[in-house]
Amino acid sequence: MNENLNFWRTWHKNEKLPLFIAFFLLIILLLGGVYAWSQGQENIIHWDVLSELHEKIIATNSFFYDEFKFSASTPLWYIKERYMPSLVEVNTLAFYALLGGSLLGLSFLLTGLARLKGPWFLIGALTLGGVLIGMHTESVFLSNSNWPFLVAFVVTGSFYYYSNSYGQKLSTSVILMCWIILWSVLLVLANKYSVINQPNLTLAAYGLIAFLIISGVFIFLISHEIIAGLVWLVSKNAQKGKSSLPQFLIISVIFLANVLLVFLENSNKIERSSFVIPSIILFLISAVLGLWGFRQFIHQKEWFSYQMSGVWIYLGMASIALATVGFVYGTNNDPLIDLFEDFISISLLVVGLSFIVYVLINYLQIFKQGLEVHKVLYKAPFNKLIYARTISVFLILFLFSLKNFYSFYQAKAGISNAIADFYLVEGDLKAAETFYKESTHNDLKNHKANVSLASMALSQGDKINAAFFFNQTLEQKPSPYAFAGLSASLENENLYFEALFALQKGLKKFPDNSQLLTNLSYLQEKAKITDSVLVNLDKSLKNCKKCEVENTNFLAFWIENAKPEKLEEMSNLAENLDYNGLKANQFAINRMLDKETIFEKFELDKDSALDMSSAAYLFNAISHPKTVNKANIEAETIKKLQNNPYNEPVFESLSWTYAQQNYIRQSKSIGIKQLYLLANANSKYKNIYNQNLGLWLMKEGVLDQALVRLKAAGDTSSFSLLSNANLKQKVEKDLQVQAEKYGANITEKNYTEVLNQAPFNPYLIERISNYLTSKNKKLEAYKVAFYATEVNSESTLIWETLVKKAIDISEFEYAMDGIKKLETFAPSIRLEALKKLYKEQKQKVQLGGF
């Protein structure tokens, strides 16, 4: 350790800054690769939630009046949800990371090689040319000639030659900065003058083949690093004179056994298990150890300076390899993932075994003496390392040949997938489809291409082809997304049982997948297989992660099936999550149980478009009289939602909610008038609206209209009972008492609040109108009576008040209309008095009496 620390301390000061920057880039690429690997298929596809709005009519206790108990039916809303695989999304960030990371890695590599002469310089020139050829730079300009490649190669090649000739005089910082500026200028020009939409993506997609080759060389070169690390670990801790060979053999055999298991897993010879270290982890460990191991190799071989060239060659290849691996996992390109994991496991197995033989041939006696083998690991006295690597190459080719060129076709399929991704983002769907299908021709059942083709079919409404492509993935590369997509496509074609069987087949492969269990319970519910629905809902709750959808469906099941005495017990079993669908169903249960609820934290999108879950949550909260509204959702907000064309499917429910919000919490008058509109319209719940309107009018003392609405609702028994009960006198007496109570302390500030307590009480309206007249607010006094007549149109007192207030403001035409109305039901004595007042006031106005 001290030796290593001293080495880094002697690093030239001018070289430290670019080195730290390169290390930082390497760490970012490493972490990005691990993150992309951990995300798996979620890099390109995720679960969407499809919410369905359901309604249920329940009976609620309304109020008691005299010896009568009034109840009404009311709708409530609840949500059922299921999972749908999203359309495939191309991970463009992975493309940019591949292009940026690889170009920086190429800059590191060329910086190191430019300081060397002879074949090393030539290797750098060939690498640069190969990368530029692979990128198909002409595709950026849709050119038939290769002038874009020639321009790029001349510019970059000239600087590479210059850095070779004068590299010893330039610091690494200057050379790297020049490379970065050079690549940046070329990319800026390519983006500015490109004739396609995504020039960066096309360079990354077509350049992938070059980056794969460099990555393959890098993986091969570091495949022995874990064994080399074990040599260091054993010999560093060995006691002189005591053999350390047994320890080395034991730990090496354990490592090779793990690699062999990885190889067998990748070959589908054995089932995957959690105790086997994955290929990517072994690769990353080898890459990190190689930074130290390559230094040891260069130091012992004395080929060139590690500080000036070696470290940059290694960091360049490592950056390209990490960027490529991150891209492969980030785009979930499963043919390349399989190829990468196969190559890692085979290389580690073959090269590791060859390296162990190399170590034993050359250093057996040193191990037995307990000496530090690692110090001379690459100074072989007998068998050179090149022989071990040559044998490894032939063994790797032999193992791959056992697959009958399948790996070659996987590589072609993976490259086609990358190019298809580019065309999909570009918007050229025909080209994207062509390359995805070419990918399936090389690897028929690869998940990436088939799911992408299914997604494209779904986006165009082609459910049959979507089902075909989903089904293609199931034999070799099944996923919950493919099973769910296949089931949904079959269900859409009315193939219910085939859709059901697809989910059951998926659950045999993924028995604990909560999404498939949720979708299965959804389909079983359609067939009314209640017991199976409950069993699968319970399983999905036990295996879910976020559990929002699962808890929502659990409550929906009990809303439909539970008895009232069981409902509260079952609802308490659901988790309390901040999720609108779950809240909507919880509020529906509270409405059924007539429990007080608190409505808060409700957010609307900027476009005021309601999704089904938010709609149900809003409707249940507002329409429940026992809801405490802390969400600042007022009638005006609901009105805006009504006016939004996106909310047209729930317009009627919004109208009901608007009426409820006004009647319960804001303006009884507006609420009743809104319900009049619903009851008179050709609405879905016309009878329910009439019934509730009748009860509201009963509460407000408008008995005649209440009876009309109850009869319109079809409630003939209640209509007959109330008609024969002779309630008229009791209602009048109660209205007088109510007017005395509310009208005791009327002021100019509170009269609107007082009026809202009983907006159609004739005695209160008379009091308020007279009070406003006394305060010289004659127009406001008239409006109070006028608005009341719109609902309580049979009240003699209200019409008398209206006529008087119309006369006060000299609106004699309106006054005459009121008198004509009174002629139909008012006593003649009171009517004659009004007519007399009308004539007198009209004559005064005509004679200029005012």
Describe the protein's architecture and organization.
By secondary structure, the protein is mostly helical. It has 39 helices and 4 strands. It has a two-stranded antiparallel ribbon. Strand 1 and strand 2 form a beta hairpin. Helix 22 runs antiparallel to helix 23, helix 23 runs parallel beside helix 25 and helix 36 runs antiparallel to helix 37. The longest helix is centred in the middle third of the chain and has 35 residues. The N and C termini lie far apart (111 Å). The mean pLDDT is 87.
Question: What is the topology?
Answer:
Elements: H1 2-9, H2 13-39, E1 47-65, E2 68-85, H3 92-114, H4 119-134, H5 138-141, H6 147-166, H7 172-193, H8 199-222, H9 225-236, H10 245-266, H11 279-301, H12 306-330, H13 334-368, H14 385-401, H15 406-426, H16 429-442, H17 447-459, H18 463-472, H19 480-492, H20 496-509, H21 514-526, H22 530-543, H23 548-561, H24 564-571, H25 580-593, E3 597-599, H26 612-623, E4 627-629, H27 635-643, H28 651-665, H29 668-680, H30 686-699, H31 703-712, H32 716-723, H33 728-742, H34 751-757, H35 762-774, H36 778-789, H37 796-808, H38 812-822, H39 828-846
Parallel strand pairs: 3-4
Antiparallel strand pairs: 1-2
Helix pairs in contact: 2-12, 3-4, 3-6, 3-7, 3-8, 3-12, 4-6, 4-8, 6-7, 8-12, 8-15, 9-10, 9-11, 9-13, 10-13, 11-12, 11-13, 13-14, 13-15, 15-16, 16-17, 17-18, 18-19, 19-20, 20-21, 21-22, 22-23, 23-25, 24-25, 25-26, 26-28, 27-28, 28-29, 29-30, 30-31, 31-32, 33-35, 35-36, 35-37, 36-37, ...
Keywords for this entry:
850 residues, mainly alpha, two-stranded antiparallel sheet, two-stranded parallel ribbon, 39 helices, 4 strands, 70% helix, 5% strand
